[in-house]
Amino acid sequence: MPGVRLIMSVGVCAAMAAAGASVHAATNPYTEEFPTNAANWADGASQALTWNAAGGMFGSHVRAPANFQAITTANETLTVFRAHDDFGSSGNNFFGNYLADGVTQFSAWIHHDLPESTTAWGRFALPGNFPAGFLDNAVVVPPNTWTEIIFDVTPGNTNWELESFPNGPTIPAILSNVGKIQLGVRTPSSLTGVDQEFNILLDRVSIVPEPTTGALAMLAGLGVVTRRKRS
Fold it and tell me: What is the pLDDT, as a whole number, of residue 2?
């Protein structure tokens, strides 16, 4: 796949402004473990997730249904989880200027009861939900076990696929104003068109900083800097 450009033009900035809401400030590092509820995350149909107090990789977790009936092609993407700024997902701590806030990695633990293994993907979009940057994850996720998936969300990652339009935002522009995040799976060939509900679980979703920012976060833990509380 082609690499991404690291220069934002005036036209790109204008497209960002037209894309919607203002930039939040991401809390970096930040981890969502869903301790008391689904934290305003939603499933692929934008319905509330099912919260479970126990049984996750680290205890509490959330669950979304997965049905492949409408999918006609093997390996096609299925959206399973949504975190949106207009939902207030995780107190909006995952949204903002990833470049300025030093966010370099997005990770999550997932579990499923599909009859065979799959892989996961992530989509990071402007507040208006388009354009977006898309990343596949090569880690195989087998059934009935918790697996960590990690995405390199730096602008230099050449695996980004850009959902855009002529003269639209670049990956750096999107990462400067992340407002929507979707996670999903690829459709196993045996499930194409199958009308059956499966369960996909999610736990410990995190963003982390680059090393220099991580050092500052350690100081924050010592009381030098106060971390913003979850809203």
Answer: 35
